[in-house]
Amino acid sequence: MGIEIKMPALSPTMEEGTLAKWLVKEGDEVRSGDILAEIETDKATMEFEAVDEGKIGAIVIPEGTEGVKVGTVIATMAGEGGDRVTAAPKAEESAPPAKPEAAPEAPKKAESGTSKLASEAKASVADPDLPEGTEYVKTTVREALRDAMAEEMRRDERVFVMGEEVAEYQGAYKVTQGLLEEFGDRRVIDTPITEYGFAGVGTGAAMGGLRPVIEFMTFNFAMQAIDHIINSAAKTNYMSGGQMRCPIVFRGPNGAASRVAAQHSQNYGPWYASVPGLIVIAPYDAADAKGLLKAAIRSEDPVVFLENELVYGRSFDVPKVDDYVLPIGKARIMREGKDVTLVSYSIGVGVALEAAEQLAGESIEAEVIDLRTLRPLDTATVLDSLKKTNRLVVVEEGWPVCSIASEIAAVVMEKGFDDLDAPVLRVTNEDVPLPYAANLEKAALIDAARVVTAVKKVCYR
Amino acid sequence: MAKPTTPRPSRAKAKAQSPASADHNRPRPETPSDYKATKEELLEFYRQMVLIRRFEEKAGQLYGLGLIGGFCHLYIGQEAVAVGIQSALQPGKDSVITGYRDHGHMLAYGIDPNVIMAELTGREAGISRGKGGSMHMFSVEHKFFGGHGIVGAQVSLGAGLGFAHKYNGDGGVCVAYFGDGAANQGQVYESFNMAELWKLPIIFVIENNQYAMGTSVNRSSAEDQLYRRGESFRIPGIQVNGMDVLAVRGATEEALKWVQGGNGPILLEMKTYRYRGHSMSDPAKYRSREEVQAMRDKSDPIEGVKKYLADAGVSEDELKKIDQDIRKVVSEAADFAETSPEPDMAELYTDVLVEQY
Known about the structure:
Chain A is an alpha/beta fold. Chain A contains twelve helices and 23 strands. Chain B is built from twelve helices and eight strands. By secondary structure, chain B is of the alpha/beta class. In chain B, helix 7 links the parallel strand 3 and strand 4. Chains A and B meet through helix 3, helix 4 and helix 5 of A and strand 2, helix 6 and helix 7 of B.
């Protein structure tokens, strides 16, 4: 009886991959554990190994095929039994150690709430500062971040990158891919798993005149290091009467990831944004990721740079200009509208854009603002938009209490009260630790439907 | 303990044959000998130690008068450590970082007592413009990187300074001071690991004054011979009589030789003692008056140097002259600190960030 071999999911976020190479051919006898193929995801190349014994029947997807969706039949096998499960991935370069591997295709794939978070939505408004006719290059957020670091490292000898798995492993999320090769191990440094320690080492190096870029595998692990980020990096310039600077960038993925549950899924934006002495940046698309990371590395101040794992693999247009550096502290209008203002940042921007698209179908024109920098907040752009729309909803992939949304609501109360035709509403995650179960996770996270509902409320529709 | 020795307590000696010495083939620093100081050097040690002592006494006084607020940790009793180590470093090349008991260190680096005292009183002329206070003082010019209030933080930060020395290849060494209390913080060991792994040029100095606030070393440390705390990271440790400036200087010379030889970090445990409480608000119920008095009588670092000076033929009158000069310096610093204006209200908002966004 024939067994179908299907394209496996090799990371929590993988939806498709490239069938790089077949290591077996039709008619080969395979035993469980034999490597069948090499599969490339956006993160790594993985070996795919057989679970069952039998003879390879037909190779359905030839090697070199890109964009093979998870679950697609890639080969058939004449097996001995009627085994259901056919193959399991073997990690060559696996996802980060603390993260569980996704199981091979189950009969019914549980849909993670995050699948709706990472939107394909893009800005519909071009950067007015770019000259007309600027060429754009499709770039993933992951590549944009790497390019930003590489460019700054070429420009300034003092810049170095340090963190867990940043060098030989090429980055737990492949963000630092290729940096070791170009810059060597003096400037691309693997650390032991010792967040508090290396955050302190980085901070001390910045005090000593260098320009460290400290990568946290995720910001969840930076909680062990938050003392140095706040007490050592953020406060020193003030405490020293302006004598001792700390030009450092702490960067890494932040916010909910896919099916990794509470300890690996949290948005720290509001935490860091509450601290005077820090700059906090949380970009959405690839162009902003590049332009703002370059600005962060050049800043004389300590910067917390919050990325999002779920958008690392998304492609956006990045302007092809030399030295693309964006201003810190400036929000960006992603879509223009006159009926309601949607304020968001990071992955929430995609959700807001998607909601805006849906609302347009119901003749509500939403203006979408990407805050981009959480500290200092560009309140002027928010208030200007409110003047036009008189209605405001904040969309935040994070908890509601003491959030950026709360802060925006307070700012609007204080400075935009007379412009309001309806109360400010917050669309945030549920006020619970993020659960693992797919249905609960989905229920806990924001989505476009909730934004649409909130907008209709403030528009009294 | 006026005798110029580098004692190793009998307990440590007995343990020298323990399994920790299994990899005895590993190169180790030589046993340091006491520094042979010239008469001029001895006079300078004396002058600096007396300056620290008188300065700290004055700070204690001003605290009592309400002119200094918050926490104020005095260095009295520990003077030989900062003075002995600093005298071996190269100004402008080597860097230094310490915790919150920092006034004494700053004086040893030649930082103007006026701006230190003015910081203690929270004035505009203070070295941190009155915004840091006793625990948060820095002088980038002197490569003195603070002055840190979080116990143990300076050890990781110091490893970062050592990293910068190595990265820049400037030949400098970082000295990171911390107390016996900080020696139980986890990040100290994270830093030890990386410092040895990457052979960073850093001297870790434990100022073991025997009490972490009110908890004695024996009550807080499973391994109370703190110089051994680096062993499992292959960082050699030396226990030093921190009450004797020549022993301190001698050990520092050896440590510098080790670190500058590219061997990576080294750990110096300075056995010392603070005469005053942990901070000004410490009633010191955890130790007896007799214990403190015995240390003052037998081991005082300033009295120790006085004996060396006498041996070198320096007269009492000469020392008295130095004492008088220092009293003048300290009283001027106090006047300066009392009469300087408080920071301008606009200072509240300056220096939060360097750049404008």
